[in-house]
Amino acid sequence: MSTLLQTDALDLAARIARRDLSVREATESAIASIERQNPTLNAVVAERFDAARAEADEIDRDRPEQLPGRGPPDRHPT
Questions:
Q1: What is the distance between the alpha carbons of residues 18 and 40, in angstroms, rounded to a whole number?
Q2: d(CA 4, CA 7)
Q3: Which of 18, 20, 30, 74 has the greatest count of CB atoms below 10 A from its CB?
Q4: Whose CA is closest to 31, among 21, 14, 44, 12?
Q5: Start-to-end C-alpha separation, the chain
Q6: Per-residue pLDDT averaged across 48-53, rounded?
Q7: Whole-model pTM?
Q8: What is the Cα 28 distance to its own chain's centre?
Q9: Cα–Cα distances in Å, from 13 out to 20, 34, 45, 57, 74?
């Protein structure tokens, strides 16, 4: 089993924010798990893997280098 599938959402988000992991990589891991398990589970009836990959690529491409609220606070003289 992929270690990504054993990662909680907060850690996954932190890894993506630090750019240790791309959204595309996380998406591919989830898709691979679905493809392995769904023949037995029959839980996913409408696959939209190509759209998910395209959305992940768009997020990776469009996200800023520094996420808002992640840097030091602005100090304004009063």
A1: 35
A2: 5
A3: 30
A4: 44
A5: 55
A6: 98
A7: 0.77
A8: 9
A9: 10, 20, 27, 16, 24
